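Write out the 3D structure for:
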Amino acid sequence: MPTIVLKIDVDTYRGTLEGVPNLVRILKQHQANATFLFSLGKDHTGWALRRAFRPGFFKKVSRTSVLEHYGPKTLMYGVFLPAPDIGKECVEEMRATKRAGFECGIHCWDHVVWQDNVRRRGESWTQKQMQAAYERFNDIFGAPPKTYGAAGWQMNPYAFAQLDQFGIQYSS
């Protein structure tokens, strides 16, 4: 039984394309295990710029090095650049993660859309978001997910019910 569990939330196209293969290599090199939770729809990271108008945003940005972590191109997805479809364009990176022996699960369909909307949305919207991610996961991996990790740690009562309907074994 593991004493420490490492959960890696993969939010962006760049993170899936570049970060995941590097993390897989490093983790394998150190014989460490992890669970990778993938965003499976479009990368609309640029839409998060709307948060600039919320109180405390600039303090958080200066504390978390947003530009350094995401890069300017990622911050333009969905605003000045088309949003890449992570689950269509990064299938091989995701499958390679599973083949390397790492557990894979769902993070969300669209990270920004989920995080910014789920607390105010109803059953139909929630089910549509989660169903899209569930179906895409099945298409990529050929099996249903066992785990789910909520984007931005945001959920609503309908999302919890949906996890039960999917038969998710554990979640965060």
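The mean pLDDT is 88.
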